[in-house]
Write a structure and sequence with these properties.
Elements (H helix, E strand, L loop, with lengths): L14 H6 L20 H20 L3 H18 L3 H21 L11 H28 L8 E15 L4 E9 L6 E9 H5 L11 E9 L12 H8 L1 E15 L7 H15 L2 H12 L7 H9 L10 H19 L3 H6 L2 H19 L4 H19 L6 H14 L7 H17 L2 H7 L6 H31 L1 E3 L2 H27 L5 H22 L5 E3 L5 H16 L9 H12 L6 E3 L6 E4 L5 E3 L6 H10 L7 E2 L7 E2 L3 E8 L2 E8 L7 H9 L3 E3 L13 E3 L1 H7 L2 E4 L4 E4 L19 H4 L5 H6 L4
Parallel strand pairs: 3-5, 10-11, 14-15, 15-16
Antiparallel strand pairs: 1-2, 1-4, 2-3, 4-5, 6-7, 8-9, 8-17, 9-10, 12-13, 13-14, 17-18
Helix pairs in contact: 3-5, 3-15, 4-5, 8-9, 9-20, 10-20, 11-13, 11-14, 11-19, 13-14, 14-15, 16-18, 16-21, 18-19, 18-21, 19-20, 21-22
């Protein structure tokens, strides 16, 4: 017993015992067993949960910065999800109240300060950061949002050209104009499509940024989503400040030509035109995209092939391209400066090379348009250079978090877009994979033959491509309703080809063009890009290369995101809990029903899915936008079949009638084919025999179908709708919009005029319509 160390009683261990190493420096505090008392059950459970959370946070060994960036993004998402200003203000107030509660419950220096230090910090920091996210996006919306014009108009405008975007593949160019409203005199911003022939009649640079033009235009309010889950252009236009979009009617008149000063936009267009003049065909358009960020000349067929093969990210100037430019600038500067011994002995070359690489990256970012993925990549690359210079670890999730916060502070609305989500998801997946213990051990340097080392590097490239593909698949399915199944294999070849062959050759060719010797190198550029396009076309053409999925719910994508972030940001065995929400999300995704009927917001376009995987369409539209939306949201790959050609449909000049068997009953659907008026009594009788009536015009109140009347009045309020007949569900656009500035319809419940004749589910089943 004499050798037993004596530990005095008190609040903590004796300092001499700690120094001697006989007890740990931060021992786990032993709590006395809690006495169960009547009425204290809830507080005991809460205290036990708090203790468990504190132990988990203390033992996890995680980096806080990435989670704070996630919480900040969560605040931005919260603003979009909540419906009205009082809810946004209430959420901010609730967060502040939560932070104050944390201070009150666990005051610094109090009894529970040491026991709940991690939990206290997490509650206070996360509450305040969440409130900051809501406040930032709310302020951004109020500052840049522009109210849309009331209705379609044709007017003569005179405006100042803010931006010109060339789109030769679509035979047009776009002008963003600052104009004044003819009635109120207030300024507004509009975007107009102009035939490319008008640009060719003027000297290059006449119609460009800074010019003043006049012309007759047809303008429309920015369109809300055509269907639930479709692209919300009205929301994008709100944050771009666009009050209307449309097209020019007739020739534009140039009042004041653009100034001749060479800005970044003119340099970008000149560079793009130079590249296309040196390299013909599809390869030239893609080379121009790599050099200047101008994707307007890429043919639609090539864009579709790149998308379906999982290579479309190569066309967006992002991490791959910016990293290649910065790395090239760093390495070349380091090697060239190392040739001068006098300079190498007096100057810290890595610092100078890092500065040159940084300037290269910033210049390339500005030249290619400074889009969100490019800015994110540039910021992240700057942090990598700083880490290399000061001798810190360059590849870390904290670096990604800082870059994300910078982008979210500048463009918080980008968080809900696919570009931001895909860009950061890919980077997080790469960093989490390469910083994990198994991968570090796999890539560790060792004595081995060169072919073993090469094999490991190729295997790592394949694993990285597969992980990126898995990480991006939920995002792609949510935004684009499709998933490429062979993208990982295509990326294994395409990414090294672009990074180490195509882009260096483009840079070398542009350098040699200054002395007129770039032609042989341009041939090599064309060969490498033709090979990349060949890979894309071959992959996209394979059976099952693309899987279409119905629109997943917000809960499903949230569970995917939560599980993926948990896997990436936690360490050790705690990260395995991330599979729980992922498995739940997969279950929800597999249970997501395919809509039986899709009705566009204008009431003109209706898609009906058949049980054999085909689709019927009310109109044989030539619009690829309408057709693609209907097919993607219905998970149909074949061309739609016009309803008038379907044997099971009865069509006249005014209406089409079809009966579907869904959920054990027959559904009779009556659809108007035009706006022609019919005799009201006959229409009322037809409506009474139908379950669903669809029309692009106002229908009289005497038209009372058994379940739903989707006429112009209803669709103006609710937007496009998707019908799940088996479960008798109506999914509309308005339910996800709330009172945000870009939405012009109404949300909430069914319109009052419909409620009087929509039967209950039980009565609907007991009284099937014929």
């Amino acid at each position: 017993m004499a050798d037993t160390p004596i530990i005095p009683m008190g609040d903590g261990p004796d300092s001499s015992a700690v120094a001697a190493g006989t007890i740990p420096k931060r021992p786990a505090r032993a709590h006395a067993p809690r006495v169960w008392q009547r009425g204290a059950g809830l507080s005991s459970v809460a205290s036990a949960l708090a203790d468990r959370a504190e132990r988990f946070l203390a033992d996890a060994g995680f980096d806080r910065a990435p989670w704070l960036a996630v919480v900040f993004a969560g605040g931005i998402f919260t603003w979009f999800i909540l419906k009205s200003p009082w809810q946004w203000a209430g959420a901010i107030g609730g967060c502040v109240l939560m932070a104050l509660s944390g201070l009150a419950i666990w005051p610094r220096g109090g009894t529970f300060d040491e026991e709940r230090a991690h939990l206290r910090s997490a509650v206070i920091a996360c509450s305040l950061v969440l409130a900051a996210g809501i406040a930032v996006i709310w302020a951004r919306s109020e500052m840049v949002g522009a109210e849309a014009i009331e209705r379609p108009v044709i007017e003569r405008v005179q405006g100042y050209v803010l931006e010109r975007e060339d789109q030769p593949a679509q035979g047009r160019f776009r002008l963003t104009l600052a104009v004044r409203d003819a009635t109120t005199g207030t300024g507004r911003k509009i975007r107009v499509n102009v035939p490319i022939e008008q640009l060719e009649r003027w000297d290059e640079g006449t119609i460009a940024e800074g010019a003043i033009v006049r012309g007759r235009v047809r303008l429309m309010p920015p369109a809300s989503p055509m269907l639930p889950g479709a692209y919300d252009f009205a929301r994008a236009a709100w944050f771009k400040g666009l009050a209307g979009t449309g097209s020019a009617m007739g020739d534009l008149e140039v009042i004041t030509p653009a100034p001749r000063s060479a800005g970044l936009d003119s340099i970008q267009r000149s560079l793009s035109g130079h590249v296309r003049s040196q390299l013909d065909g599809s390869a030239g358009t893609i080379a121009a995209a790599f050099a200047s960020g101008d994707r307007g000349a890429i043919p639609e067929t090539d864009g579709d092939a790149m998308r379906d093969s999982g290579l479309t990210h190569l066309l967006s100037i992002s991490g791959l391209h910016v990293s290649a430019v910065i790395a090239a600038g760093y390495v070349v500067a380091l090697k060239v400066l190392g040739l001068f011994p006098a300079l190498a002995l007096r100057v810290r070359l890595p610092l100078v090379a890092a500065a040159i690489g940084a300037l290269s990256g910033v210049g390339y970012t500005l030249l290619t348009g400074a889009e969100v993925p490019t800015v994110r990549s540039c910021v992240a690359a700057m942090l990598v250079l700083v880490a290399l210079v000061i001798g810190r670890e360059a590849l870390s999730l904290r670096m990604v978090a800082v870059a994300a916060v910078v982008v979210m502070l500048l463009w918080p609305e980008s968080v809900i877009g696919p570009s931001f989500q895909m860009s950061f998801s890919a980077v997080i997946a790469i960093v989490a994979l390469h910083t994990s213990a198994p991968i570090r051990a796999f890539l560790a340097a060792r004595e081995e033959p060169w072919w073993h080392r090469t094999g490991r590097q190729v295997a790592m490239l394949l694993i990285t491509g597969l992980v990126i593909e898995v990480a991006l698949m939920p995002i792609v399915m949510f935004h684009f309703h499709r998933a490429g199944l062979y993208g990982a294999l295509a990326n294994v070849i395409a990414i090294p080809l672009v990074t180490f062959v195509s882009m260096p050759l483009i840079a070398f060719a542009l350098l040699l063009d200054t002395i007129g010797l770039g032609a042989p190198v341009w041939w090599g550029v064309g060969a490498s890009l033709d090979l990349m396009l060949g890979i894309a076309r071959f992959t996209a053409a394979q059976p099952g290369a693309v899987k279409l999925m119905p629109q997943m719910s917000a809960l499903t994508i949230a569970l995917f995101a939560l599980g993926g972030l948990w896997l990436a940001l936690w360490t050790h065995r705690a990260r395995l809990f991330g599979f729980v929400p992922i498995v739940a999300a997969i279950g929800l995704l597999l249970a997501t029903p395919i809509p039986d009927v899709l009705i566009a917001r204008d009431g003109r376009h209706v898609g009906i899915t058949l049980e054999d995987g085909r689709m019927l369409s009310l109109r044989n539209t030539k619009s690829s936008y309408v057709r693609d939306n209907l097919l993607e949201l219905a998970s149909v790959t074949g061309e739609p079949i016009p309803l008038v050609e379907w044997p099971g449909a009865q069509c006249s000049a005014e209406f089409c009638l079809i009966t579907l068997e869904r959920g054990g009953r027959d559904w009779t659907i009556l659809m108007a084919r035009n706006r022609d008026l019919v005799e009201e009594r006959a229409l009322a009788a037809a409506c009474e025999r139908s379950d669903i009536v669809v029309a692009e015009r106002y229908l009289p109140r005497s038209c009372r179908p058994r379940w739903l009347r989707a006429d112009k009045r209803f669709l103006d309020q609710k937007g496009g709708i998707a019908l799940d007949l088996k479960n008798e569900r109506v999914i509309d656009v308005a339910s996800g919009q709330g009172r945000h500035g870009w939405w012009r319809g109404e949300g909430g419940d069914m319109p009052e005029y419909q409620k009087s004749y929509i039967p209950s589910r039980q009565s609907n089943r007991s009284n099937p319509g014929k």
